[in-house]
């Protein structure tokens, strides 16, 4: 554009008016008068007549154009490059008409090369008439080259920017005008560069609403002169959501003011999608699409922390497919894989929404039951899983049958940390396998203490029921104030023909697992009722007898009808029976148990809550179920005379129960000292070796006849 030449020559003289030279050679005299000055001018200075012939010039001709001074004559046109000739003639004519002109053209060097010059033409006026043209030619070849190079660079920059998959932009902060936006904007946003340059849309208006706070918080850092680099989402013109990576750099001038913002924006939607997919498969099983072991472990740990804070419970369930290896080996791995996928789908269908079902390896699956309402009915959950898995799977015209071994564990009853919970759930799972597979086991300490008896247990128990190998012992309960027996607890024993005496702690948990506990419980109820009737016939004073009831009994359909039928068959009054249940029974089957208790109590049977003080939510159940008796667990009584905390807790339980109009029975009384402390706490009844160990039926008959005074 030759701006340097224009500024240098502009204003030297807008017109030259000849006043001192009246003779015909006035132009020559004019030039001679200024010759010394013009020869020292850094640019070519010349004069032309009104036809365009060269009249005079300074000494710059040889150095600029390679001509000797003697070679310059005639019209200026022969020294102008052909492509600039029309341009030159036009501006010369304008100058002849009285208008000073400034323009860029190319002149010819003697060697034929073009020289870029900036021309200033000024009319020379004499007596108010234009008599000649004064001109200054400034060599701008170098600056034109630089300008051309800059323009080429600018074009190259724009070309590069417009071919990149990113958007490069620049904004003047003072005017808020967008200075440059590359064409990459269209692919990223759906809006053209022109739309942004003309403010057809505002960038802030396409920011995804949920990312507004993140975006504007970052923008505030620009005011501090800091570069920002962040990711956020926008809404594309077509309505889709895109992830962007945005880097913005503030330009600070020499005064320290931020005058411009430059930035580069790229679409990272695909990258984000890949990252999300990688993150997804880091926590999900590639085959079944279920959560994997990693997610299971992390959710379990989080659940422990949350449940500890909220004093809630949850269950951990492990499953192992019993016949999967056979199917996988006998058919092929593709069918085995499809079977695992279908098992996963079936488990998800069986387990309530929002509960976690995971594949933790091979043919092993795990479940986290987080909702408390399902914890109360774990037997039903276990049975549902067992039955659900047994339904056939159809794969490639094969009808496949598998079964599952299931282990179930509860927090915090069976462990308060992940390691313990997983270990105990695993133990319950392998216990289920020991019992013949196709089974579920709910973990308890007693189950794990007798692993060797499972091999003979099932058939032996069935035989014991048929052969009357079970017996019932009775342990008296004594009124603290009167020192008389007021009740007794029925305790089952198994006289195994080969193993000898088997205590309840060894076979009751196994009976629970197999479901035989219901038959055993019914046998105990009938036996107790028959003995009461026998004593009544013999005129032996009888007392109410308490019987421990299994949770599975409550689940048995029409069980209460069967119990009442036993009472009717034996002619025993319901008020002579007391059913003992534990807190765990309530937790597993709360509504069913509540309805059953209500029904039995209306018929005259009383209830006691056994092992009170070992759980963590019993106070709620005391109020809700309105038991007649609360039995304090022997673990609290054992050290009541040694441990002040046990004593304080025991006293508080007694006061609480009395406040709810319930009587209290203390189990495991072995010393007079324990008795006296309980007496001072106003405990109602005691039971333990201080008065009597569990007695066989004949011994108990004698005990009842004599009484205790």
The overall pLDDT, averaged over residues, is 83
| Distance between the amino and carboxyl termini | 128 Å
Give the C-alpha Rg.
52 Å
Sketch the major β-sheet.
Answer: 8 strands, mixed, barrel
Q: Indicate the low-confidence ranges by residue numbers.
A: 1-24, 449-456
Description of the molecule:
The chain has 709 residues and is an alpha/beta fold. It is 43% helix and 25% strand. It has an eight-stranded mixed barrel, surrounded by five helices. Strand 24, helix 24 and strand 25 form a beta-alpha-beta unit. It is rod-shaped. The termini are far apart. The N terminus is likely disordered.
Descriptive tags:
single chain; 709 residues; alpha/beta; 8-stranded mixed beta barrel; 6-stranded mixed sheet; 28 helices; 27 strands; 43% helix; rod-shaped; disordered N terminus
List the helices and strands and how they pair.
Blueprint lengths: L2 H7 L6 E3 L7 H14 L4 E5 L5 E4 L3 H5 L19 H12 L4 E8 L5 E13 L2 E11 L1 H23 L2 E7 L5 E4 L2 H6 L3 H5 L14 H8 L8 E8 L5 E12 L5 E10 L1 H14 L10 H18 L3 E8 L2 H7 L2 H18 L5 E6 L2 E6 L2 H4 L2 H13 L2 E3 L2 E3 L3 E8 L6 H17 L4 E4 L2 H4 L5 H14 L2 E10 L5 E12 L3 E3 L1 H11 L2 H21 L7 E4 L2 H5 L3 H12 L6 E6 H6 L1 H14 L2 E7 L5 H8 L3 E4 L1 H4 L6 H16 L3 E5 L4 H9 L4 E3 L9 H10 L3
Parallel strand pairs: 1-5, 17-18, 20-22, 22-23, 23-24, 24-25, 25-26, 26-27
Antiparallel strand pairs: 2-3, 2-6, 4-5, 5-6, 7-8, 7-11, 9-10, 10-11, 12-14, 12-17, 13-14, 15-16, 19-20, 19-27, 20-21
Helix pairs in contact: 11-12, 12-14, 17-18, 19-21
